[in-house]
Amino acid sequence: MSLLEEAIQVAAEFEYPAEELNKGVEAFISQMHSGLQETGTTLSQIPTYVTAVPNGTEKGLYLAVDLGGTNFRVCSIQLHGNTTFSLTQSKVAIPRELMVAKTSRELFGFLAKQIENFLKTHHDEHYQAHLERRNSMNSHVALADAEMFQLGFTFSFPVNQIGINRGTLLRWTKGFDINDTVGKDVCKLLQAEIDALHLPIHVAALVNDTVGTLMARSYTSPGKTGTLLGAIFGTGTNGAYVEKLSKITKLESMKGSDYNKSTGEMIVNTEWGSFDNHMTVLPDTPYDSDLDKESVNPGIQMFEKRVSGMFLGEILRRAMLALTQNPKSKLFSDEQSGKNELHSTTNIAEDSALYKQWGLDTAFLSIVAADSTPDLRVIRQTLARDLGVDAASTEDAEAVKLLVNAIGKRSARLSAVAMAAIVIATGNHVSGGGGEDDVVDIGVDGSLVEFYPGFEGMIREAFREVPEIGEAGEKRIRIGIAKDGSGVGAALIALVAAQAEK
């Protein structure tokens, strides 16, 4: 069997036909409903206490901060009221010693100081006016002032959220380890340090960046339709959507939860990376299975491990390695130089990333998928640069492209499962036609959906194969890039929270 025939067989293992896709949609809807009723299901369906989405007419100046890892970002967002905004931001690295500090005050005091520096640099007039008012009045009056900045706090660590600006840290990740913080309300910790510096700021909202994506899209999207779903397809994947409060029955049993009921809706964070961890409907190949076994969290995030950018490069690496080790296929192994149009024997470097776990970045897939040059020159150059494969043949490049296309297409079709399920489960009967404004709006962010060639087109192809959506319905689903959920989105959540308080 030729190399291409072998590659076609491996690529076929990643096929995800319409029948399986629709089983996936059905299972996702079922797990959505279970997650709204009880905790501990594979789709967490976490209530976010955000009970309204913006429509683009909102105005004002809001703050957002983002502690997502080793950097801390401070932003101010001026909403112009016409779906546009202006953003000012600064970023600072978190000193290593503060990531493992003895007390919460050390870290949160540092964060508050960065916010103060930002105000002095970018909003000094507002800041000085506040100081003057504070000096001329008693502090209680100053803190109740209408000039207070409302702040959205994106905190990308596991928390138990029980209110729009209330959430206790469950555990640290990403190299942070401050025992004193675990079990404490992170919004209160930040507010205490802000108050100690007498800053005119109220921590109004604790923010998940996927929810922020939904909010950012809803503010900037055209027309009158609010956004239904915010989704991230990047290093990881997740989705948040607008749900009817009456369906989130587990809220009744969540002690101490506090939220505004006036809209009858709440944004739910699905945490869909863990969809079908029990593997009842997700597709599986030896490459997926081995990746999972050798990962840091076997049996967890099974949907994410087939969809997101963090894992697609590793799936491809394992599939390519299998073809190089298969004596029948002979990927990257010319028997004699005469068979290679470069007249040079193909050679794999001993220290090639092909032999290293996580050695291949998903950006490699995007480059391969985009190459339409004669003899697939770009792929061959990229194989040399990224994998140390010298003098790869055109047939080698064609085999790699077959694998990439199959893995990328499966990722897009699985992405469509989650999105289609939410459209259907929320009662958006898109297949029935409708007027110009009668659309379902979805905001997306992440490197896959933004840079992987044809990713949205493959999602749309899958939508058309779902009977409840079909060709007519697919045309009524509007997908738009929503940038900066942790900045603009966080500011918008702070706005919604402040309005709800009033």
Distance between the termini: 72 Å
Major sheet details: 6 strands, mixed
Taken from the alpha-carbon principal axes, the silhouette is globular
Structural class: alpha/beta
* Rg over alpha carbons: 25 Å
According to DSSP, the number of beta strands is 15
User: Count of DSSP helices?
Assistant: 18
Poorly predicted ranges (pLDDT <50, ≥5 residues)? Answer: none
- The average pLDDT score comes to 90
β-sheet strand percentage: 15-25%
The share of residues in helices is: 40-55%
Strand order across the largest sheet:
1-11-10-9-14-15
InterPro entries: ATPase_NBD, Hexokinase, Hexokinase_BS, Hexokinase_C, Hexokinase_N
Domain Hexokinase N-terminal: 9-219
EC number: 2.7.1.-
Protein name: Phosphotransferase
What this model shows, in words?
The chain has helices at residues 3-12, 18-37, 96-99, 104-122, 124-136, 139-143, 186-196, 209-220, 286-293, 304-307, 309-325, 362-370, 377-387, 394-425, 447-451, 455-464, 470-475, 485-501; strands spanning 46-47, 59-67, 71-80, 85-93, 149-155, 159-163, 166-169, 201-207, 227-233, 237-244, 265-269, 347-348, 389-390, 440-445, 477-481. With 502 residues, the protein is α/β, with parallel strands linked by helices. It has a 6-stranded mixed sheet, with helices on both faces. Helix 1 (3-12) runs parallel beside helix 14 and helix 4 (104-122) packs across helix 5. The chain is globular and about 85 Å long. InterPro entries: ATPase_NBD, Hexokinase, Hexokinase_BS, Hexokinase_C, Hexokinase_N. It is an enzyme of class 2 (transferase). Residues 9-219 form the Hexokinase N-terminal domain.
